[in-house]
Amino acid sequence: MTTATSNSHQTLVMQRLASLLTLQQRLRAASDVTAIARILVNDTRHLFEYRVAAFYRQSRILAVSGLPEPVTEAPFTQWLRAVCRHLEKQVSEEPAMVAAEDLPQSLRQDWSSFLPEAGLWLPVKSNTGEWQGGLFLAAVEPWKPEQTSVLAHLAEAAAHAIHALQVRPKVPLTHLKKKKLSIIVAVLIAAAMFIPVPESALAPAEIVAYDMEVVRSPLDGVIGELLVKPNQKVAAGEQLARLDDRSLKARLDVAKQALEIAGAEYRRGQQAATGYREVTTPMPVLKARIAQNAAEVAYLESQLARVDIRAKHDGVVVLNDPDVLKGKPVRLGERLLAVAAPESAEIQFWLPVEESLPLPDQAPVSLFLNVAPDKALSGHVRYINYQAEVSPEGIFAFRGRALLQPEENLPRLGWRGTARISGENVSLFYYLFRRPFAAARQWLGL
């Protein structure tokens, strides 16, 4: 019987020793003081039983057993903070048994309402004597000396863990070296602000024709037939469209009949004059009527000859929507389509007003097409309008044209992309802060 009791006691001692070592390991692995406080108030139960535990530090209750966060304004928390503040002043180094009789009269009367009889105060101090806090435990049974001894080891491990969190790791650079490095970095940044860089702006762009024949309606009429498609290659003299000629043919038939009638009247007048008969209409009038009708016939025949619209030179048809032209009534000189020479492609860009910048003559332009964003086409500005207008994208911008370099492979007309227009060299400081300064001036009204 005695042997069994001895074995049971040894087993209990070993279990407590293992729990103590586990708790010390967890305290050293904690990430902050609050985590250490929660381990002390909740996991110390693996060593000894108690009802209430609290950790006190810097006039605050950091953790209470059984609660995720202590309620600061609760009556129990305020009373327990006052008790710990009193014990911090009275008990300096060693663990101490605490009862209601050891407290001032103002704190003594609430003990029975909040805590069991046996209290234990464990000062948490590092080996250098620095006070790190206090662990307060309250149990039903009185605390035994061997229990306080084990808990003192636990408090010492907690103090060491808190002290380790407060010690700043050493860095290889001294404070003086850090200061010098900061000054060097600041000087380099300030010097970099004066590096000259080309000022640039981005603008939406499109490939358009530099040399383009605008095909217009040769007379009033209706588009009867459209014979080409957009981007179709045509040769000089090739028919592009045809106007409806039915109205002209009808008018020509009427004019020819009028000419025949006028000729018959003129011949009858000649016969009457030869036979000494009275002529109702003078001969000069009849002759003038013949000339008038002949001019009308010639005019209508020339108009019929112009209903076929042909290209003047080789090129590519520039036309947005062919269905719009079919059957459309047109006036003399109205634009129908265009024939562009493919070897005369150039860049048309729309520089937004807020992106405008002073440009030198023949400012360099780089075009990044949407179909090939990894390659840039080079060119130079030919002109920019002095007055801003609304672009096809609906932005207020300056329209400009730029010629491509002769060695560039000419892209297809109509391709779109983004053009970067480069201006004069400015400082890096001005390049970075030009837009913020402009926005600030507009906002402040300066």
Automatic annotation (TrEMBL):
Its main location: other. It is found in: Cell envelope. It comes from the Bacteria. The chain crosses the membrane at residues 181-197. InterPro entries: GAF-like_dom_sf, UPF0194_transport. Keywords: Coiled coil, Membrane, Transmembrane, Transmembrane helix. PANTHER family: BLL5650 PROTEIN (PTHR32347:SF23), EFFLUX SYSTEM COMPONENT YKNX-RELATED (PTHR32347). This is Membrane fusion protein biotin-lipoyl like domain-containing protein. It comes from Kistimonas scapharcae. The lineage of its organism: Bacteria, Pseudomonadati, Pseudomonadota, Gammaproteobacteria, Oceanospirillales.
